[in-house]
Specification:
251 residues; alpha+beta; 2 helices
């Protein structure tokens, strides 16, 4: 509105000056004689040209003002766009700040949980260390027991070796003792072949008369190669129920 008023003021001043020039011309002709007419015509032309130059200058000024006003409008539109962009940027930054605050809050919560987890892990590590100490103590005890067991095993092995030696010595002694029979003439019951220096002697009694053929009267038995038995099937031959076999080694 102020710009339009300024332009209207410039045009009004131009019209007023034109009217003033015509009034001066009329007054000039009214007061001028024929003798001075040519000079007055020249003066009038000069005044009209001056008025035209003034109007042209005024129009040039108005045109420049219009250009400036257009540029100002363009600049104002650009400023509005910049203000709008700044506002949008501000809103975006506020959103980003809100999200950052939420992220920071979440990180703080996570930090709290992590601190609790670290505390739990430290307690677990402490228990593990105690368990390791107990295990180390147990291992030391086991190693000591193993050492004692190895010593006992070595002792048992030595005893076993000595017992094996003693058994071998006893067997040798027994063999030597068995190979040495008492002097004199005698017989022993045979059990297979006779020892060296002995001669086998055998004999028997068959169809021995007994009261009965039951276990009370005839009890079968073997004495090495010798035996007592029923004569045939027990009870087959009445009264002649038993028989005796003797096999001996004599020297």
């Amino acid at each position: 509105k102020a710009v339009v008023s300024t332009q209207s003021g410039h045009y009004g001043r131009g019209l007023t000056m034109t009217r003033l020039c015509f009034v001066l011309v009329l007054a000039f002709f009214a007061s001028t004689t024929k003798a001075d007419y040519d000079d007055q015509i020249d003066e009038l032309k000069r005044l009209i040209l001056a008025s035209i130059d003034a109007q042209a200058q005024l129009i040039g000024l108005v045109t420049q003002e219009s250009i400036k006003i257009s540029e100002l409008r363009i600049s104002l539109a650009g400023l509005k766009d910049q203000v709008s962009g700044i506002k949008n940027s501000t809103d975006f930054m506020e959103i980003r700040v809100g999200k950052l605050e939420e992220t920071i809050s979440g990180l703080q919560d996570n930090a709290g949980r992590m601190a609790a987890s670290v505390s739990g892990v430290e307690e677990e590590v402490g228990r593990v260390k105690e368990s390791v100490v107990e295990i180390a103590s147990t291992i030391a005890t086991i190693e000591s027991d193993v050492t004692l067991a190895e010593r006992d095993t070595e002792t048992l092995e030595n005893l076993s070796e000595r017992m094996a030696t003693s058994e071998a010595d006893f067997a040798d002694a027994l063999e030597r003792a068995q190979s040495k029979w008492p002097l004199g003439s005698y017989c022993i019951l045979a059990n297979g072949a006779c020892p060296a220096g002995f001669t086998q002697q055998s004999g028997h009694l068959k169809a021995i008369s007994t009261y009965a053929a039951n276990q009370q009267y005839i009890k079968s038995a073997n004495f090495g190669s010798s035996s007592i038995a029923c004569h045939g099937a027990c009870g087959r031959w009445p009264n002649w129920y038993a028989e005796l076999y003797i096999v001996s080694c004599c020297k």
